[in-house]
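Work Package 4 report. The design task specified in the project plan requires that, given a folded chain encoded as structure tokens, an amino acid be chosen for each position. We show below one input record used in the internal validation round.
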């Protein structure tokens, strides 16, 4: 999925978050960068028991514990997830404490560097798969044309901040997982990803004639909860949701080209048909 995996960076990030916050991350035990032990670098963390909103099939399509929960329990999970982002973003001196997660790409701000890193990720996908996505490139152009006037303070950005990367117990988070995309950037990077990740699944459900979850993780509700918890009102929220959608397009391109490579599907006439979030991304950048 990514050009490289820095497991030591993830290990350090999880451990530091656990030391400095109440964000429920697993306790990391040791890091082994030597691939000679089991054939690849690895790290070890404690086991946590809980349940995860499913990706296959996406939870918004029904038939799972979250979809079948009461509106009150769904809201409890939503609010608790937003609260953990507020807790994560409250870490002081993030650029010093987490200097080791800074992206190598250059830019005049942490948001510029974040987007430059996402562009490099897209170039990796297009180069390794041999096909470019006009829709993803149109998305990056849209981001440039609508750049936020106020980027806001820099925080530690989890990066892959969706509920499918959280383990829950009684609708409250007990483990925050998957830190491959951790970096530095505005708070809205994580908030936009949280909202769009659900929107992508909801759009898939409605495309197939299912009701989806139209009242769950809506931008206004997420922004209001975040402000009430943190005291910070998200700005330019629509831009960050679109930024998340463009990055999901990169994910779709990588996974689609990989499926073609391994003979799991045929290459479509239109490469953008490989993007499983095309239905939600296209109107956002149209």
């Amino acid at each position: 999925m990514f050009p490289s995996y820095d497991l030591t960076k993830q290990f350090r990030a999880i451990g530091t978050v656990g030391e400095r916050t109440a964000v429920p991350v697993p306790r990391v035990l040791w890091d082994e960068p030597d691939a000679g032990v089991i054939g690849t670098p690895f790290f070890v963390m404690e086991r946590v028991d809980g349940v995860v909103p499913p990706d296959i099939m996406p939870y918004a399509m029904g038939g799972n514990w979250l979809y079948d929960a009461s509106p009150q329990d769904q809201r409890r999970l939503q609010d608790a997830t937003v609260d953990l982002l507020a807790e994560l973003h409250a870490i002081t001196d993030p650029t010093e404490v987490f200097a080791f997660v800074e992206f190598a790409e250059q830019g005049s701000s942490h948001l510029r560097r974040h987007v430059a890193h996402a562009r490099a990720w897209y170039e990796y996908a297009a180069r390794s798969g041999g096909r470019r996505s006009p829709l993803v490139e149109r998305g990056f152009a849209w981001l440039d044309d609508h750049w936020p006037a106020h980027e806001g303070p820099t925080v530690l950005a989890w990066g892959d901040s969706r509920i499918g990367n959280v383990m829950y117990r009684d609708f409250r988070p007990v483990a925050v997982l998957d830190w491959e995309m951790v970096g530095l950037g505005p708070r809205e990077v994580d908030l936009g990803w949280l909202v769009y990740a659900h929107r992508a699944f909801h759009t898939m459900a409605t495309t197939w004639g299912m009701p989806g979850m139209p009242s769950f993780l809506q931008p206004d509700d997420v922004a209001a909860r975040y402000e009430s918890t943190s005291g910070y009102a998200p700005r330019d929220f629509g831009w960050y949701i679109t930024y998340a959608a463009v990055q999901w397009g990169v994910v779709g391109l990588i996974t689609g080209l990989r499926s073609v490579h391994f003979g799991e599907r045929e290459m479509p006439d239109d490469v953008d048909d490989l993007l499983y979030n095309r239905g939600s991304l296209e109107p956002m950048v149209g």
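The CA atoms of residues 60 and 213 lie 6 Å apart. Validation will be extended to a larger panel in the next phase.
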